[in-house]
Each structure stands twice: as C-alpha cells, then as structure tokens.
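Work package 3, deliverable 3.1, input record:
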Amino acid sequence: MQKTEQVQYNRAGQRVVSPEYMLFEAPRTKHFMTGSEVVKEAVKRSSVDASVSYPITPQSEAAHMIGELWVEGYVGVYFRGESEFGVMSEIAGCAMAGARTITTTSGPGTLRAMENFPMWAGSRLPIQLVLMARGINSPLSIQPDNLEVSFLLDTGCMIWHAETAQELFDMIIAGFVVAEQPDVHVPIVTVVDGFFISHTREAVMLPPDDIALPPYNPYKAPMPPIDMEMSPGRFLRDPYVMKSNYISYATHASWQFEVRAAIERSRPYAKHLLRGLIEEFGDPEGDLVFVASGTAAAQAKEATQILIHEEGVKARVVRLKTLRPFPTQELIQAVQGAKYIFVPEFNVVGWLEREVRRALYGHVDIPVIGSPRVAGGMTMPPEFIVKEILQFLGKEVKHVV
Amino acid sequence: MAKLGPSGYSPYPVAVYENLLNPPPGKAVMFNEIVDEEVAMREAAKAMLTRDNPTIFPGPQVLYAWNDEAKEKARLVRKMAEVLGAKIIPMYDYRPKYPKIDPEKEINPNHPNLTIWHNNIKACIFIGVHCHYANVALKIIRAETDCFTIAMCGMAGHEDAMITLRDQHTEEIEKFIRIAEEVKRDLGK
C-alpha cells in the first residue's frame, strides 16, 4: 500500500517544507535584486509571525517591504515602533508571546536599541535582527562602515556576516532554524554591510515562493513563553536573584554562561545549514592569507585573483561566515602553512583583527596584519588591497589606485 | 562534564568550554564521553541506587497535565522514585516565592544548591524542567556541590549534567525504569 503523505500549509497558504528542502533541494530561478529586496523574499518564505519596524538608512527599504508582506498576508503582525528602542522592546514582546519574529536596523539605531540585545539573549528569545551596518560616529554619517558590529559581539546574540545578497537570503532562512533549536534559542543577528549589499543589485537564485519554513513551535522553547508575563520578567522578582548576595551572583554567573553556552551549541546546526562556518577561496597553497568577513571578504577575493593571475603571488582567503560562534578551530586549521595573515576591514577599530589574534594566540605563530582598513564610508577597491600587499612584499606596484 | 564537583566558580563550570556538546540522537553523554543510551541509563541508575539521599526533581513539563504525554510521564516519575528509593522534590514553576522559598521542600533553578545542601543530596535526576532552567541549575550544582546530576531531557540534552539522556519520552522512561530494576537486583537491593 502506498504511504499517504501529509501536506501542511501555513497561514499564507504556502506549502510547508523542511529547512533542508528549502535551502538545498528546491529548484531555484535567477533574479536581479538588491539586498533589501532579498530580505523581503527570505521573510516571505519563513512563516514569520511578527515584525516591528522603524526607519533608518540604509535598512528602511527592507523594513518597508516586510510591511508589504503583511499586507499580502505573509506576515502575521506588522507595526512601526516609536524608536529603535521601542522596536527592539516590542519585538521582544512578540517573541515572548511565542511568535517567530524579525526586525531590521542600522547604525545609530543599533546603539539606541542596545540595552535590548542582551535582554533578548538572557530571555532566550530567538529573534532575528537583520543589521545593515552603517557608520555610528559623530559627525553623523550614513555611509557604509561596520564599527557597530564590534558593539554587538558580546551581547549574547549569534552573529553571522553575509558576503552577498544571495548569502543574506540563505542566512535569514537558516538563521530562524538555528536560533529556534531548543538547545540554542538565542537571538540571531544577520549582518550585511549597508549600501554595498542593501542597495546594489546582484543575481540571486531563489526557490519558489509557494513554499515556506515550518512554523515556529514555542512549546519547545527552553523557557515557557509566558514567563515574561510580569514585566520586565518574573524571574527578576525573585529575591534570591535580585539581591546583592552570593546566591544571586551565582545565578547571574550561571545565567550568563548559559547564554554563551547556547551560542556554542549552535555550531553543528549552523555548520550544516551554512555548509561550514568558513569558506576557503584562492590558491590552497597560498602563504599569504586574507581572513575577512562580509564585503571585505568579497573585495579580498577580487584582490586574490589579481595577485594570483597578474602578480604571481600565491594568495588565498579564509572567509568567516559566523562571528558568534567564532569559528576558532576552523580558522586555526585553515591558516596552517600561511606566512602572513592580513585582515581587511571596513571600520576604524579593527574588531575582526582583534578576534583573529585572540583565536590564533598560542595556536599558530604567524604575523597578523590589520590591513588594509578603511572607515567612514570609504570603499576598498581590490587594486587598493593589491597595492598594499605588493608594497608589503617589496614588489613593484603596477596597479595604481 | 569533566569531573564530579564541586568544581568551583572561577572560571564558572561550563561544559561547552571543555568542548563538550550535547549527544547526537540515540546517544547519551556520561561525564565527557558519548556513550550508548543504555550504558548511561545503567550508570545513572547505579548512581541513584548507591549514593546518599537520591532525589528526583520533576519540572513543570511533568507536574502539570498539559497533555496525555505529561500525565503518563508523571505516573512514570512516581514509579521511578519507588524503584530508585528516591525522594521527589518538585520544581513547580520558576516563579519567585514570597516571603521566600522553602528550599527543603521545593527547588528553584536559580538557587538549587540550597535544596541540595539542606537535604544533603548526592544524586539527582532532572526531568520535565525547561531546558534553560535545567542548564542554569546544573551549572550552579556543579560549581557548588558534589551532587551527581542526571538529566532526562525531552529535547537535546544538558551537557552540564554528569549524565545526560536526550529525547526522553514515555518509552525511554519505561526503559530506564526496567534497567533500574535490573541494576537494583544486581546490587542485591
């Protein structure tokens, strides 16, 4: 007798499929889209229950288009918050009620909302934040610069950094799945470099839009969804938790370590759905290695091609897809045989250089060079990277920028 | 889990930092080793049958009649306690109690060490406790006590317990009770 297959549909009438089918097996067609448009396409296929928005460049368009999905019936609840702080608090309320949630922000909005991110993590809310990074300095800048990522690194959220619009699409979908695992269940920040990804068009391969992820099941959450019924959370009313005594310190220590442990537990799930936590590109025997994430990795790949094919320099790129969890073991393995490690970045402090140094310390003895580094909205053309490398190696510079 | 506690609080004990993750489906973690579920069940039963004041800490997922599975699990927890000769101290919910909790009669995940100290508990089973609270409590117990912790989890497990069993539903709990009966006979109890 033939087995009957039960087909499930979500509220929008989309057929529910497994994450593996959505990400690896469903036929895909080619589209020409901006990163903002890609956010809409990913949300459309993710059975999202709630989204809260607030305008701030460069993420406003993505937030606007999630609103269109609400009009079209793909998103259950959508409204505008009073400010970024309001948005991040309200989206937390939606998640506490058991909803699959997503929101977006950029630059100063991220900092205004900052207090909420560790609160999300400590409350074990699997909220997804799409961060389209932009400058956060004064004088005010709306230009691309990812300094804000360094502020988020220790909030207790998972942080993934997409290189392209295509990867942003796949990461948003995978992000829900990983963040909602019962033993993970912490927020996920999917980062792209603003403007470079949000505002430029590229070819993306999309699965059909009549399929979607299975709905979120809040009954598998590691905390009961109603646990926050007494604002700001019933656990905060416990005299043993909120007093200044050793018992409360132990609670807080365990709680904070547990949030970090949850991020570590995401490794196998992320590895599976992202096809590894790192990507290696270029000459596998290259002794000059760029370690980079996001748009800096894309530029480093272009530079690597020039170095290999036009300058005869054996180079390669180790691209980090996840920053939290940080792919320490993968990185240590990948840089074996390198003579120099360059870390190109779009920010003034070199937060990735710091991360790389920390991960490699005591494991490999290779100079880590925090260069090239641009900030404040500057671009980083591949020729600029090539020039820097050739100068470092004492070679003749033919590519003038 | 590297060793039986107390393991101190600086650095705070966290099994994932010792490169220990939850077991894959069908397996269990015993201290820092991945083993077959049955091997772990046998050792868990032995710990409960041989250490002082064994206690089961049932959580809201088996204390409240959410569904038929919860009711059946509650019945099995009672049977498990009989077989193991264990006391039951419930974790009713995670709410603060006023004026304060009586840790001898009730366990709270934010200060489980009080209950263990008061009752001198040397082996315990967590069952039906929501994962976050089980993890918070298990880390504190590791840091502060020498209690042998066993986690029977309906989800992916708890690597901070000395023995963690994952995907524990009625069938698996029945299996554990059968194994516990065998171990009890073997020990001549």
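Chain B touches chain A through 36 residues (CB under 8 Å).
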